[in-house]
């Protein structure tokens, strides 16, 4: 009987450890047919069997999902799971002030600890990995211990009712604070849904979602900070946050529209012009490459 208890406790500890580390080494997640798909960056000496043990997924399922591709260090591999995908709504950023409110959230800082990844930090603060990258102008997923990152945290709201004294009756009365939820402005699609053509109905949020597919080009311009994710677009108003996805690498980045571009030999037949930082984040191999973009336009009055 004692041996049974020991075996049961040992199995429970191992199961808890496996589940606790499931997403520690991941660099992000994706939505595949409503199921969560983990993105993992290959480390030295890792193979499909090691990934299967780490994420508690059958190695053959991982191999089939990735078309039995040969593994190389730094390669991003997709780990399929049976867990439902819970989508987080993106936020828009305003870098003009450290105390700027973003959809009811307040900007704060986080110091990177050992074994922390972009995904674990984003999960801790209920953020998207792409939003965390954009907020900190990160070109890669690499982090260093002690590095300071900007994060968005929910403002603390007191849920305790305030007790006041009624001046007429002299009896205490409870005044409950009304909490208003921030209005959702726009829903961005995940890269796996970029071809669904979903549009937010007019007059619902005051914004209509636009989806475009075409050629992007990155340029070096003295008027654009090449270290930040900026974009030029013909229709999107200045300040619009555009989601850009490279279907070849399945990487996405959020870029801020800072103006319009004029058509010339470089920008001929393109739908968007971006900085080198945004191009690097998308893993582009050429100066001109195919992209899918999603952004919001104010409804016509």
TrEMBL record:
SUPFAM superfamilies tied to this protein: LysM domain
Ranges of Low complexity composition bias in the record: 92-103
Disordered: annotated span: 88-110
Coiled-coil stretches noted in the UniProt entry, renumbered to this chain: none
Listed InterPro entries: LysM, LysM_dom_sf, RlpA-like_sf
Keyword match Metal-binding: no
Any GO MF annotation of the entry: lytic endotransglycosylase activity
Keyword rRNA-binding applies: no
Keywords, alphabetical: Signal
Domain of life: Bacteria
Residues annotated as signal peptide: 1-20
Residues covered by the LysM domain: 108-151
Protein name: LysM peptidoglycan-binding domain-containing protein
Species: Pedobacter aquae
């Amino acid at each position: 009987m004692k041996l049974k208890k020991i075996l049961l406790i040992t199995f429970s500890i191992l199961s808890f450890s496996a589940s606790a580390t499931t997403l520690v080494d991941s660099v992000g997640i994706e939505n595949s047919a409503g199921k969560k798909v983990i993105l993992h960056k290959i480390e030295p000496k890792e193979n499909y069997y090691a990934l299967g043990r780490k994420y508690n997924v059958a190695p053959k399922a991982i191999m089939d999902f990735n078309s039995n591709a040969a593994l190389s260090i730094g390669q991003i591999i997709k780990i399929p799971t049976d867990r439902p995908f819970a989508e987080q709504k993106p936020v828009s950023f305003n870098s003009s002030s450290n105390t700027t409110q973003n959809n009811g959230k307040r900007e704060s800082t986080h110091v990177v600890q050992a074994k922390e990844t972009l995904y674990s930090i984003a999960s801790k603060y209920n953020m998207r990995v792409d939003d965390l990258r954009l907020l900190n102008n990160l070109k890669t997923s690499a982090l260093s211990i002690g590095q300071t990152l900007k994060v968005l945290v929910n403002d603390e709201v007191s849920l305790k009712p305030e007790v006041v004294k009624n001046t007429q009756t002299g009896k205490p009365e409870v005044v409950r604070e009304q909490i208003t939820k921030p209005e959702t402005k726009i829903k961005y699609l995940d890269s796996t849904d970029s071809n669904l053509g979903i549009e937010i109905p007019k007059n619902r949020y005051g914004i209509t979602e636009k989806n475009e597919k075409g050629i992007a080009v990155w340029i070096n311009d003295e008027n654009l900070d090449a270290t930040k994710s900026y974009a030029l677009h013909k229709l999107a108003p200045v300040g619009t946050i555009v989601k850009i996805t490279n279907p070849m690498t399945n990487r996405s980045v959020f870029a801020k529209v800072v103006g319009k571009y004029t058509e010339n030999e470089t920008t001929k037949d393109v739908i968007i012009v971006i900085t080198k930082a945004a191009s690097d984040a998308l893993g582009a191999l050429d100066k001109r490459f195919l992209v899918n973009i999603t952004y919001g336009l104010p409804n016509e009055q």
